[in-house]
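[retry 2/3] ABC transporter, ATP-binding protein (Cluster 13, osmolytes): previous attempt timed out, resubmitting with same input.
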Amino acid sequence: MATRTGAAESHANGAGRAAGGSAIDYVGVSKDFGGGGRSAVSEITLSVAPGRFVVLIGPSGCGKTTLLKMTNRLYEPTAGRITIDGTEVHSLPAPALRRQIGYVIQQTGLFPHMRIGDNIAVVPRLLRWDKARVAHRVDELLDLVGLPPAEYRHRFPAQLSGGQQQRVGLARALAAEPSTLLMDEPFGALDAITRTRLQGELQRIHRRFGQTIIFVTHDIDEAVRLADEIVVMRDGLVVQHGPPLEVVTTPADAFVAELVGADDVLRRLSLLPVGSAMRPLDRANGATGAALPAGPTVTRSAALRDALGTLLESHEDHLTVVDEDARPIGTIDLETIQAVSGRAATGAEGVSPHADVLRA
Ligand SMILES: Nc1ncnc2c1ncn2[C@@H]1O[C@H](COP(=O)(O)OP(=O)(O)OP(=O)(O)O)[C@@H](O)[C@H]1O
Ligand SMILES: [Mg+2]
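[retry 2/3] ABC transporter, ATP-binding protein (Cluster 13, osmolytes): success.
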């Protein structure tokens, strides 16, 4: 990504820096659309700490979008309360609230008759930023989402690919440096490669600015990749809330197990570090610096799934595990990997982490 001096300066004086993330609390929040059916959202109580990346997952109609829309007051709850940094959202004027909260949806919602630059500038102009500051911010954001400003700022949305439009949607949501981002299946319509790339960009932006993000997806792999915490919803309720590893390895019930593919050995392996499965090196051996196998190595923080790939490609019977300073600290082989993936499988039925499964 191009780094322009102007952008760097604005970071130094604060114009380009987000103020970190907000705390969001839902207490007994319900939404009943009337009509006699069950509530779309039923007494949800959920705390999201500042700067956390929380992914909501659950079947169609379980209330994910409704929960997001109550957060920025596109819907009002029927009961309960939602606070942002301790202030009830209900007490904030909706326009001010929505400037503090960026909102990205699958159909980007870009204005088709407005150029990309003008689309991104909507909120800064509402905030009456002066022209130069708006123009600077637009270019800074286009840079941030990987679209060269000179090439893209004057185009219309229809002249961009779906993935590029999604980038603009993200840039627009970030325009006023929101402390919170609500993202409703933002990458749902994209091909796998574009999707993976945008996930990476979003992670980079989150690491840099530390917004609180609530992200809805139907894709458990996306959830596992992005989430600090996964919230599983069903019929308007939260049925499980925890870190990805916990949700995938100890699903609360059969429904969650099926939803998150808890019996998917490879998914579990992608969440476990090599260090959790290695045989520590014989201390005496390590201390005397005895000849170590010259074969392939893997770092202890790498995912077991990657280690397995390396192992299978290498045709060796084990890999040497090294620490961050490339010092050998242990070994790993198929047997140790199987032992760990099997142990992590409690709660899911019919798991048989044999080599043929792993190779599949
Ligand atoms: N504006 C509305 N008026 C009436 N009912 C609604 C409205 N919006 C949502 N609902 C209902 O509330 C429930 C939850 O809908 P919601 O859109 O929150 O689900 P979702 O989890 O986002 O589903 P999806 O994964 O399909 O997007 C559904 O039964 C839906 O029909
Ligand atoms: Mg939805």
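[retry 2/3] ABC transporter, ATP-binding protein (Cluster 13, osmolytes): The CA atoms of residues 1 and 311 lie 35 Å apart.
[retry 2/3] clearing retry counter.
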